[in-house]
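Replying to the earlier thread about multi-chain prediction with a worked example.

Input:
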Amino acid sequence: MINKKVGTVQEALAGVKNEMTFMLGGFGLCGIPENAISELVKLNVREITCISNNAGVDDFGLGLLLQNRQIKKMISSYVGENDEFERQMLSGELEVELTPQGTLAEKCRAAQAGFPAFYTPAGYGTEVAEGKETREFDGKMYVLEPAFKADFAFVKAWKGDAAGNLVFKGTARNFNPNMCGAATITVAEVEEMVEVGVLDPNNVHIPGIFVQRIFQGKGYEKRIEQRTVRQRN
Amino acid sequence: MAIDKTGIAKRIAQEVQDGFYVNLGIGIPTLVANYVRDDIEVEFQSENGVLGMGPFPFEGEEDADIINAGKQTITTMPGASFFDSSMSFAMIRGKHVDLTILGAMEVSENGDIANWKIPGKMVKGMGGAMDLVASAENIIVAMMHTNKYGDSKILKKCSLPLTGVGCVTKVVTNLAVLEVKDNQFHLLERAPGVSVEEIQKATEGILVVHGEIPEMNI
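Result:
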């Protein structure tokens, strides 16, 4: 067993610098690496580029890094629910690259899997395809999209072990598995660190080879963005 | 009389067939799930990574780790599955999802759709809409026929930035059911009490009217 476990979030984020590119898992506030984000705020790294499906809300998730003006550029598919984001974007303080959600996921997966680029039908004929190479296959048009390049990927899993094996829960899985191994260093934080050998190899979602550092996260808030319920009859 | 959002959802629900995997967009499309016949088997896919989505949870049973693409807390049905974003869009791009229902700001007679950006006003992003419309073979749009000033949103050519080109197959509005075919809108049904003339007046794109047009049965 190759040991990936580190004791603290500080150790897990060692080497993080200004102007780096980070991938951050999560969909809305679901499955976001809360501990890594808090530490990035404390480290106050600046001029960073963040690849993440959303930008959090004003006072949580990536919104915290936005409030602190640490982000130079966001690469996302949907950035509603965040007033500070909109303000910074419209004033030109923040550079934003909007990318179709499936393309965003696949640009992560391509980096993970060693593909330099791929063709997708998404965005053909729209401003997303402007300036990009297009090609016809079987009578349909596709856009060439390059893989992402990132320095760190910060992901959040439900359970993990010192070997770096990860198991996700529910829809908190989302972009997290696609970002593992897609950056130079992948840092996984887990709700529950289990002893090596406890996870059934049949049910490991991400094998430890894609993870460089893993640590036990603390104090998860797991905020709900839209609490919707039905009445009992 | 024009129908409301619930009416649109009820009419679209009639398009859902037994054995369909369906992706519902945010807004009116989400309501469609409430009106699907209960004697057929349908599975709802949400692009954030769940197939077999169920109703909202009972109060006190919400789970922050189980949400839909609208970030709402949900439940899952027996037989449901969770997966990552890449696999979710493999289902979508790979044409494994049978029906996509989404909202729009504008559609045009050649099947173009605009629903993600109003330059200078609203720039929230496309989310999964561009992937959905680029691949799905069966796309139904739920929308209002006109804007609040009475201007048509059923156009010759979209004025807003496009989400996809030549992809919409059917449009259900507060006034009518339209099929998009051969670069024209074909009038299939009228909202109860709405005349063909009213629909014609509210439609900027080419509207083909063949014979008697029945009223929607909702």
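Chain B touches chain A through 51 residues (CB under 8 Å).

Feel free to reuse this layout for your own posts.
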